[in-house]
Specification:
The complex is a heterodimer. Chain A is built from 11 helices and 14 strands. Chain B is mainly α. In chain B, helix 10 crosses helix 11. The chains are: A alpha/beta, B mainly alpha.
Chain lengths: 328, 270
């Protein structure tokens, strides 16, 4: 298990030109604590510049934290970064992290050497990984001739070359087509559930996070603002219910009639009439009352369902709330 | 120690550098050899021929300036080539976007840099041999060479160049520069380290600086073993001095490199 507590990272950048440049401190991560269990997929969310990549770089020992503690299976990551490196790997979106002048096979071979993977294991592993990312037919082609998505796929294979126990994924599906990202998602699930690896993933595709993550951390401006399962996060943020109702008949009068009947149960109810459906927003579960109201009015229900709030809406809402608090 | 990193890095560099243009590489080698020897010969022809300073043979123990300057220039070529390759390795990784994926791995830095050094040693040696053949008609005289002693001198010198590369490499990574710092340094080495004239001709203060750059003593050692046929036992003091001084460079270089690695990683945004 990975346990990170109160991580903080301050970048020092030099501003301006010439000899007398001013030093400026950028607090990219101000206070992050998180845990990653083996076999679990953890999501790290936040808008651009929230500090996700910086957090991942600290957890992968590319950056040493300015403050805070970091333990991976009881190994002190701040003191023994090399021991951490042996047990992890990281995949970032984009076309970096591979040698363009080498072929796909040579890339994986070289990374296998610097990870000290024994040669007979390595050969088999390279074949498996190339198959996994669908590059087995391109293995002897120089990477510079690859498309963006192919480079990205090779990078994914690179991230698995040392068979890491923990894997960090920084926007891994960026630039991938629908088919490949779907395959990657199912492989990520396989890695966690079948191979018991601990995984941390960041992504701006909420569908992906919702599909994959057992637990989610949301950060904004370098601090953690919320954590929980997808369900917890969405229901906590959206305590009101949303219903969609379609009837056999449709008119303004009918909508008003339903609205009146519901107001008796929940005074805060809002009923909107749009296209051929009626949208109801209420504080409480009113599905019983809703169907009774329709029956009493002699209307047939063609369709009625509760709209589940999406994680995406939760993120937007949360970041906006934090922003408002900061401003006012 | 299984040397996987060393072997892997050598193979990687060979593949990246020479696979694409082997013909260019060969022609390039021959040309550098020719230019180096030609440069040395011109220096002799226009600067020193006839009016060689009286004390030259006293100081150097040889009156054969053309051999003196060819060996000096070729050693200098070696310094430039190996130093460049080693010191440029990490900044190249930075530019190609592979520094982070490299640094994610728990690999041994010493093997990585040695691998880089050895690749360059192999290819530059080929270059030097070509140059020596070209130098024969210009009158280079290696008849007194003590090959055993030279071999030891060569290995000791490699160590010295490695130390210099590590220090230069950390400076380059820190300044993210490959041209200004390297060219300034190489021009300085050329003038100060006794490449084309003995350091004794330098002002006192420059001579002191020359003595603490291991290249100076290394050039001397190579020259003595190749040109005056001195055995290595007579040169033990010189060997010890180079080894000691270079070790200081290697230690400082590795420490600085680690520090500069961290700084370089902090500067990568996104
Ligand atoms: N090397 C650096 N030097 C200085 N500031 C940096 C550096 N890297 C990141 N920052 C700053 O730190 C903050 C957090 O950046 P970070 O890359 O961690 O965000 P992120 O959550 O990954 O964003 P995105 O969704 O855009 O990838 C930003 O304000 C960024 O400008
Ligand atoms: Mg990022």
């Amino acid at each position: 298990m990975i346990i990170a507590e109160h991580l903080k990272k301050t970048y020092i950048v030099k501003q301006g030109k010439g000899l007398f440049r001013e030093k400026q401190e950028i607090q990219a991560v101000r206070d992050i604590s998180l845990q990653i269990e083996k076999g679990k997929i953890v999501g790290l969310l936040g808008i651009n510049g929230a500090g996700k990549t910086t957090t991942i770089k600290m957890l992968t020992t590319l950056l040493s934290p300015t403050e805070g503690s970091y333990f991976l299976d009881d190994i002190d990551g701040v003191k023994y970064p090399v021991e951490i490196k042996k047990r992890i790997n990281m995949i970032a979106g984009g076309e970096r992290m591979i040698y363009w002048r080498l072929t796909a096979y040579e890339n994986l071979w070289y990374y296998g050497q610097i990870y000290n993977v024994s040669n007979n294991v390595l050969k088999e592993r390279i074949d498996t990984l190339l198959k996994l990312v669908g590059l087995e037919n391109k293995k002897d082609v120089p990477v510079e001739t690859f498309s963006k998505g192919m480079k990205q796929r090779l990078q994914i294979a690179r991230g698995l070359i040392n068979d890491p126990q923990y894997l960090f994924l920084d926007e891994p599906t960026i630039g991938l087509d629908a088919v490949v990202s779907k395959e990657l998602r199912s492989h990520i699930k396989h890695l966690a559930k079948e191979q018991n690896k601990g995984i941390l993933i960041t992504s701006h595709y909420m569908g992906e996070i919702e599909e994959l993550c057992d637990y989610i951390y949301i950060m904004n401006d370098g601090v953690l603002i919320k954590k929980g399962t997808v369900k917890e996060l969405t229901t906590e943020t959206f305590n009101r219910k949303n219903y969609v109702l379609r009837l056999d008949k449709h008119s303004k009068e009918i909508t008003e009639c339903i609205c009146d009947k519901l107001k008796v149960v929940d005074a805060t109810v809002e009923v909107k009439d749009e296209n051929d459906a009626i949208y109801i927003n209420s504080r409480e579960n009113i599905s019983m009352e809703l169907s009774r109201a329709c029956m009493e009015a002699g209307l047939y229900i063609r369709e009625m369902y509760e709209k589940e709030p999406h994680l995406e809406d939760a993120i937007i809402r949360l970041s906006r709330e934090v922003h408002h608090e900061a401003v006012y | 120690m299984n040397l996987k990193v060393l072997y892997g890095t050598m193979k990687k560099e060979l593949m990246i550098k020479y696979r694409a243009y082997p013909a260019h590489f060969f022609v390039g080698n021959t040309l550098t050899g020719l230019y180096t020897v030609l440069g040395a010969w011109m220096m002799w022809k226009f600067l020193f021929e006839g009016n060689m300073a009286q004390d030259f043979s006293e100081i150097t123990g040889t009156g054969d300036y053309i051999s003196y300057v060819v060996v000096g220039s070729l050693t200098y070529l070696f310094v430039v080539r190996t130093c460049l390759n080693v010191s440029r390795s990490l900044i190249t990784e930075l530019r190609e976007g592979t520094l982070e994926s490299l640094m994610l791995a728990p690999f041994k830095r010493a093997e990585y840099f040695l691998g880089s050094m050895l690749v360059q040693t192999l290819t530059t040696s080929a270059e030097i041999i070509v140059s020596l053949i070209i130098a024969i008609p210009f009158g280079i005289d290696l008849s007194r060479a003590d090959m055993g002693a030279f071999l030891i001198a060569f290995i000791v010198s490699l160590y010295a160049f490695f130390g210099v590369s590590m220090v230069l490499g950390s400076i380059m990574l820190y300044t993210r520069d490959t041209y200004i710092s390297q060219n300034t340094l190489f021009a300085f080495l050329f003038l100060v380290c006794g490449i084309s004239f003995p350091v004794q001709y330098l002002p006192e203060w420059l001579r002191v600086i020359a003595e603490v750059i291991p290249v100076t003593e290394a050039v001397n050692l190579i020259r003595v073993t190749l040109l005056s046929g001195s055995g290595i036992s007579e040169q033990m003091q010189s060997v010890q001095y180079i080894l000691l001084l270079s070790t200081a460079y290697v230690v400082v270089g590795f420490m600085q490199m680690k520090r500069c690695e961290e700084i370089a990683l902090e500067k990568i945004n996104g």
